[in-house]
Give the backbone structure.
Amino acid sequence: MKFNYKKLKKNNLPYIIAEIGVNHDCSLNKAKKLIFYAKKGGADAAKFQTYKAEKLAKLDSKAYWDTNKEKTKTQYSLFSKYDKFEKSDYRKLSKYCKKIQIDFLSTPFDLDAVDLLKPLVPAFKISSSDITNYPLLKKISKTKKPILLSTGASDINEIKNAVNILKKGTKKIVVMHCILNYPTKDDDANLNMILDLKRNFPNFILGYSDHTLPDKNMLNLTSAFLLGAKVIEKHFTLNKKLKGNDHYHAMNFIDLKNLSKNLKKISKILGVKKNKQVLKSEFKSRKFARRSIVALKNLRKGKVIQEKDLITLRPNSGISAIFWKKIIGKRARKNLKKQKSILWSDIY
C-alpha cells in the first residue's frame, strides 16, 4: 500500500500519523506550524478533521469525553468551535504538505466532506464513531482510495461488516485498533487486541490509533508496533497545556521525536530476516567459538578410540563435536598427539 511519500510493507518502519485534528483552533498559520513540526518530528502524515457541526451532532448530544479536561457539555457546542475551515483552507494545507513532503490526511465526518477531500488526500481515514455509518462508508468506498479504519468501541462483527462494505471499492484497508476514550487509561489500552485483529483480518495491514496519555518513551505506541501495527496514529499538539479538545492527551514535538527515534531503533533491532539463519557476521564466531573433537592424550596408531581419550575444545578446526558418537570405536590411522584436532583422515 502506498500513500504519497511512503510505501507500507510488512518489514518497513510504521507509517506515523500526527493527528492534528482541530488543535489548530481554526488558525491557518497555526495549522501550518503544526504540519511543519509534525514533519520535523518524523511523522509521515499530518491529519486533520473535516466537518460541520450541524452535519455531525444534534444540538443536545451529550459529551463522551472527560469533562474535567474538556468542560464543554454537548458535542454540538464543542464541534461548532472548530468547524470554521472551508475548502480553500484545506487546499492551502494540502499544498503546504506537498511543499514540505508530508502526506496530507483528514477524516471526513459527512458526505460533503468526502467530496471536498477526495482531490486532496492520498487516503481516507474513518473515525471509530462512524464504523456503523453506512452512507459514509459507502461514499468513501466509492472513491477507491486506500482507507484507514479505526475500530474503537466496536466488536469483531461490526468491524467485519464495515470492511465488507469498504472492500467493494478497495482492498487497500488498514484495520486500526483503537479505544474510544478521551483519554484512554493504560489499563484500557488492551494492545493484545491487535493480535485478535491479526487473526480475523490476516490479509489486511494493521494499525493503532492511540488516545492514552503519552509517556516520555512512548511505550504504548512502540509496543503496538511490536505487536504488528504498521500504522501509528497519535494526536499532536505544540502545547499539551492548552485548553480545548485534544491537547491534553496529545503528543508534542519532543514526544514525536522520541517516538520516531525509538521506532527506528526497534525496527533496526528486529531486522528484515524472518527465518532463523546464520548471518555473515557470525561466520567467524561459528568457526572459532564452536568446538571440535581433540585428542586428550597421545594416541598410538591402531588405538581403538574411547571417550576417555577425547575432549571437545575450541576452535571448530577438525571434526565437529556433534559427531562425538561416530568417533567412539574408530581406530587411529596414525599416531595422534595430545591437543591434536582429529580429522576424518586420522581415523578408520
